[in-house]
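Minutes, project check-in
Item: structure for the 290-residue chain
Input as provided by the requester:
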Amino acid sequence: MGERLGYYPGCSLHTSAREYDLSCRAVLRALGVDYAEIPDWNCCGASSAHGAGHALSRALPLRNLMIAEDVGEDLIVPCAACYSILRSTTGYLQKKSAEARKLQAKVEQVLGKPYREKVRVTHPLDLLTRPEMLNKIKGQLRTSLNGIKLAPYYGCFLVRPEIAAFDNQEQPQKMDILLRELGAEVVRWSYKTECCGGGVGITEGSVASSLVEKLVREARKAGAEAVVTACPLCQANMEGRQTQGLPAFYFTELVGLSLGISASKRWFKSHLVDTTSVLTKVQGGISGGR
């Protein structure tokens, strides 16, 4: 890709989901994607701003969108929750309601510049499954996932609301396609878009734990050796609230492993569930690399 892309990590990727951030950046570099983290970004408000007021829940992502316009026309957003709120905010503003116009004018006044509506909010899963990127990945594969059985887990935010969905909302396939290209066996299961309860993890912990245990149990029943996700909240919830020892990988970690990026050794050490049993089955392990 020739043009520079903006990159918005959000709060989780700088803290609890550091391995997602590191693996995403490493994969983008390995595939020759020119990107730059947008400067002076703020929390998008996906987790709590709506509780403080509707205007704040739109103003926070709008500020990030306006900053991103100075970096590139595409904004890569790995966190599924951040992606959903940023993408839905662009749709909210495009409707040009009186409320939206008033909010936009107020944020423009604060920042001292106009919102030009030129940024496309893009999730890295969508980016990496475009035909030209899949061809690049296939051309650079160094390690096969060697038929390990994986359950792709999309969760809520990549398929809801409709404006944020870049895949089939009922039966998404892009992660499935990518994992097969890496040499994994993708298991069929009926829970790939079910909620993990991440949104109520603090207020209703027992509910979240119950939902996670059901997801892990069904993934095991389908024959999965691990779950693969694209959401920091889902990943933390899936590994931190289960008792069955099923690892939950970020899809970018497995792409990086397959591309032979040696830094992947460090990413896997951050997991709450031991990944050794799965990684030892990968042909060539995590040796070699860049």
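Outcome recorded: The first strand starts at residue 5 and ends at 7.
No further action items on this chain.
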